[in-house]
Amino acid sequence: MSSIIYPTTNFKATRTLTIERGEGAYVYDSEGNQYLEALAGLWCTSLGYNNRELVDTASEQMSKLSFSHMFGGKTHQVGMDLGVKLSEMVPVENAKVFFGSSGSDANDTHIKLLRYYFNAIGKPEKYKIIARERSYHGVTVAAASLTGLPPNHTHFDLPFGALGVLRTDAPHYFRGALAGESESQFVDRITNNLEQLILKEGPDTIAAFIAEPITGASGVIVPPEGYYEKVQAILNKYGILFWADEVITGFGRTGNDFGCTTMGIEKPAMMTFAKQLSSAYMPISASVIRGDMYDAMVDQSSSVGVFGHGYTYSGHPVACAVALKTLEIYERDNMFARAAVLGEYMQKRLGEFLEHPLVGEIRGKGMIAAVEMVANKQTGEAFNGGAVGAFAQQACQNHGMITRAVAGSSLAFCPPLIVTEAQIDEMIEKFSKALDDTYKFVKQEGLL
Ligand code: PMP
Q1: Of 332, 367, 394, the domain-final residue
Q2: 264 and 314: one domain?
Q3: How many angstroms does the Cα of residue 248 sit away from the middle of ligand 1?
Q4: Does residue 217 have its Cβ closer than 6 Å to ligand 1?
Q5: Pocket flag, ligand 1, residue 212 (CB < 6 Å)
Q6: Residue 280 lies in a domain
C-alpha cells in the first residue's frame, strides 16, 4: 500500500512509472529508460531539465538568503527586481504584482483582490465572476469553483455558492456548434448568451470574466476568429473586467509573449501566471492587476488597515531569483520568437494526422496542441469515457514519450520550448506509432 494520497489520480490505479532524473527535453525512469517530455511536465518545464544557469541561480540564492517574507513592511531586492521585470513585460497597464506559489493560489488571490477593490470603490455588490464551461483554473475551493470541469466539482460539493461564479459557454466550435451552424454563427450565439447572462444577473453585480486565452487542461480549445473581439466589446459595454489566466499560455507558449497577444486580447485588467514563470524549477505564481485598481486599494487601506492576505511563500527569494533568471533567459535567447518558428513547424507536422482514421480534430497555436480521437470521423462523435485516451497515453509512454490525455480522448502536446526541430520530428514519429496502436485497440474492442 502506498503512503501517499496521489493528486489527480484514480485511488485504485497502480503506479506505472517512477521518474528519476531529467536532462534537456528528456526524463529517465528508475530503470534508465528515456522519454521525450512532450508535455513539459505539466505544461511548465519550458527550459527543460538540468538547466545549469537555473540550478546555479537557485543554489547561490539559497546560500545568500534562503528565506525571507514580505509581510508587514519587509522586502528583498530579488523580489523587487522580479516585480519590476514582470510588470514591464505584461500588457496590463501600470501592472502591480502579488506573488504566490501556484496557479490555484494566484487565482484565489485574484478573487480576493477583486472583492477588496470593489469594496474599496464602494461597489461591494459587484463580486460575481463569469467563468466558462470546460475551463481550468485550479483546484483550491475557490479556484476549483472557477474551473468548469465536472471531476473537479463532483464529490466536493463545488462550485462554492457564496463565490458567485456564473458559467458561460466554452468557445469550442467542433464540440459546441449546432447542426449546420457556421463558425461565425456559433460565435454570435455564444457571445449573445454571454450578454444575456450579464443582463439577467445585472451588470452591476459582475466583477470579472476569467478566461484562459487558449485552454490547456480542458483540451486545448482555440476559440474561433472574432470570439474575443466580441467578448471584449460586451465586457467593455457593461464595465466588466477581463481576467486572463495565462498559467499555461504565458511566456512564449502560443508563439508570442502571451496568449493575450496571440488571441488579440487587449490590455486585460488582470493576469495570472505560474508554471513557465520559473520554468517550474521553483514553485512561484503571480497575480497581476492594473495600477489604478491597486491605487484604489491603497486609498482604502487608510481606513481598513492591513490587507489581510499573504502566503508564507509570497515572494520566496529563491523562487523569485529563479523566475528572474528564467525571464532573462527567455529574452536573451529570443525564446518567444524561436517558439513562434518551431511552433509553426510543430502545428504543421501534427496537422499530418488529420488524415488518420481515428483523428477528428487538431487544435493548437505555437507550441501547444491537442489531437482529438473520435469514434466517428464523419460525424465527429466522441468516444464514451476515457479508455481510448488512457490507452493512447500509455501507448505513447511505451514508445518513449510522455504526454497526457485531456478532455477524454484528446492527447496534448506542449513540449519544453527548448526542443529542436529534430525532437519535434521524434515526437511525431512516436505519436504516429502510438496512434496506430490505439487504432488497433479501438478496432479490437469494437469501439469504432
Ligand atoms: N490555471 C490554469 C490555466 C492552469 O492550467 C492551471 C494548472 N494546470 C492552474 C490555473 C492551476 O495551477 P496549479 O496547478 O499550479 O495550482
Answers
A1: 332
A2: yes
A3: 7
A4: yes
A5: yes
A6: yes
Looking at the fold, whether 376 and 259 belong to one and the same domain comes out as no
Low-confidence ranges of the chain (pLDDT < 50): none
pLDDT in tens, 222-279: 999 999 999 999 999 999 999 999 999 999 999 999 999 999 999 999 999 999 999 9
Cβ neighbours of 310 (radius 10 Å): 17
pLDDT for the residue 1: 67
Give me 265's grid cell. Answer: 486580447
Q: Which three cell numbers stand for residue 12?
A: 485504485
pTM over 0.90: yes
Per-residue cell: 11:
485511488
Residue 243 CA to ligand 1 center (angstroms) comes to 14
Q: How many domains does the chain have?
A: 2
- Going by C-beta distance under 8 Å and a sequence separation of 6 or more, which residues neighbour residue 361? 174, 371, 372, 374, 380
In the numeric block, which cell numbers belong to residue 196? Answer: 444575456
Q: Is 350 in the pocket of ligand 1 (CB under 6 A)?
A: no
CA of 242 to the centre of ligand 1 (A): 18
Q: Is 310 helix (H, G, I), strand (E, B) or coil?
A: coil
Residue of 46, 136, 368 best suited for mutating to test ligand 1, as the one with most atoms within 8 Å of CB: 136
Q: Is the CB of 274 under 6 A from ligand 1?
A: yes
Its domain, for residue 247, covers 54-332
Nearest CA to ligand 1 atom 12: 103
